[in-house]
Design a protein that fits this description.
Blueprint: E1 11-14, H1 23-29, E2 43-46, H2 47-66, H3 69-77, E3 84-85, H4 86-89, E4 98-103, E5 107-113, E6 120-129, H5 131-136, E7 145-147, H6 148-162, E8 182-189, E9 196-198, E10 210-211, E11 224-231, E12 235-236, H7 237-242, H8 248-269, E13 281-285, E14 290-295, E15 298-303, E16 307-311, E17 319-321, E18 324-326, H9 331-335, H10 344-356, H11 366-379, H12 383-386, H13 389-404, H14 408-421
Helix pairs in contact: 3-6, 8-11, 8-14, 10-11, 11-13, 13-14
Length: 422
């Protein structure tokens, strides 16, 4: 009796036109493994061999993913031994509608009410993949994903900046309230469930919110995400400007808060943001007239004008913590940026390349000044600022100083003198 696994009925005739290997299989064939060498002539493929090939692909991908050293470090950081599911982390009976309100190149951002206290919390969700797998599957598009080593760096940076909200025993000379408070982080597996929705429609409105489509699974790799769970930092400043819910004096206060926040992190951690465009600044209303910053032991009270600034997205940031430098190598990223129209934002990227000489591990505080120059120069063009000549003049003066100084700390005294003089 013949072995059922080798029964001829399992064999199928596959012609050159009919056989269409998957996108992943095409990529895997480029690896130096003989099992993937298949000629283009019509061949007979047994079902058991096809299954074995599929199993090999899955085994190869899983091995590369689960053996990633930084994946283990991400799990340790998150206090996990294995990834958790979305349904277990955000059960539907507690989190009925998790609304997406922002998206970036590498992440989607959602907000939801914390069932414990009813306050908004923010979820930054990033698809993760093994760097080793990414390097070997060169023909596969990994657009919109982060490697485990880069996401681990961002986790460490986010936690360090979050500590600046309190004068900790280790860093008593530094205090800044303009970075997101990281509440928790988790490595999560599987697609997003249907309680994650697109838009900001409330559940009790007539129009039902559209469900968010799962992240595309281009590679067939295990579907894993890192979820940053943070306190709500506010709305994007560009949205407030567009809807005219803010005035020129308030924009000036927010810009000063950003400057002081950068100075604190720069001195405390040798921090550089490296991507501080207008979409990465949030604002939230506050009743406090002043916000206090501690800059190397010196106290500064900055007027809020009714708004508190929050600097977000540390994907490209650089920070030194306990003698270890955490950063993202931006050589390939900036090399691939091609714009039909050169904006000030893209000019800043070029300035950073020249300043760092593409050595992204090095501390180059001038990059923070590049972004401050961008910020003050961009906001001064707003009609909300142009309506107030005195405010516009102060924007221009600070932008000029940012372009001439070497570090953010140097500009603080100038801002204080300028504020006192006015």
């Amino acid at each position: 009796m013949s072995d059922p696994a080798l029964d001829s009925s399992d064999e199928v005739q596959v012609s050159e036109n009919e056989y269409k290997p998957s996108f992943l299989e095409k990529a895997l064939r480029k690896l130096p493994i003989s099992v993937f060498n298949r000629d283009k002539r019509p061949v007979k493929v047994s079902a058991c061999k096809a299954q074995a090939s599929s199993d090999f692909y899955s085994h190869f991908i899983e091995k590369k993913t689960y053996s990633d050293e930084y994946r283990s470090q991400v799990l340790d950081f998150c206090g996990q031994q294995e990834p958790i599911t979305f349904d277990k982390l955000f059960p539907k009976h507690k989190y009925r509608s998790i609304m997406r309100f922002d998206s970036g190149t590498y992440a989607d951002v959602y907000k939801v009410r914390n069932p414990k206290d009813g306050k908004w919390i923010v979820l930054k969700i990033v698809r993760t993949v093994s760097k080793s797998l990414q390097k070997q599957l060169t023909s596969v598009s990994f657009s919109g994903t982060e490697t485990f080593d880069d996401i681990f760096n961002e986790l460490v940076i986010s936690k360090a900046l979050s500590k600046l909200h309190h004068r900790s025993f280790s860093e008593p000379k530094y205090l800044a309230h303009c970075y997101p408070v990281l509440l928790d982080a988790k490595l999560v597996k599987g697609n997003l469930p249907d309680n994650f929705v697109r838009g900001e429609k409330c559940e009790d409105t007539e129009e039902s919110p559209q469900r968010n489509e799962p992240f595309s699974d281009y590679t067939g790799a295990p579907i894993e995400f890192v979820v940053f769970i943070m306190k709500y930092g506010g709305e994007p400043i560009w949205k407030m400007i567009k809807e005219k819910r803010i005035d020129g004096a308030q924009l000036l206060s927010i810009s000063k808060q950003v400057t002081f926040g950068l100075a604190v992190a720069e001195l405390c951690y040798e921090y550089e943001h490296r991507d501080l465009h207008i979409s990465n600044i949030l604002v939230k209303k506050t009743k406090k007239p002043y916000i206090r910053f501690h800059v190397d032991g010196v106290f500064y009270d900055v007027e809020t004008a009714g708004f508190r600034a929050c600097i977000v997205d540390h994907t490209f940031s650089r920070l030194k913590h306990r003698d270890t430098v955490y950063y993202k190598d931006m050589r390939e990223i900036l090399k691939s940026k091609k714009e039909d129209k050169v904006t000030l934002q893209h000019q800043v990227y070029k300035w950073m390349i020249n300043e760092t000489n593409n050595e992204w591990n090095l501390f180059c505080p001038k990059t923070n000044l590049f972004w401050l120059y961008y910020l003050f120069s961009t906001l001064q063009k707003s009609s909300l600022v142009r309506e107030h000549p005195a405010v516009k003049k102060e924007f221009e003066q600070i932008a000029k100083q940012a372009n001439n100084m070497k570090s953010t700390n140097e500009i603080l005294d100038f801002i204080v003198q300028l504020t006192d003089g006015n």
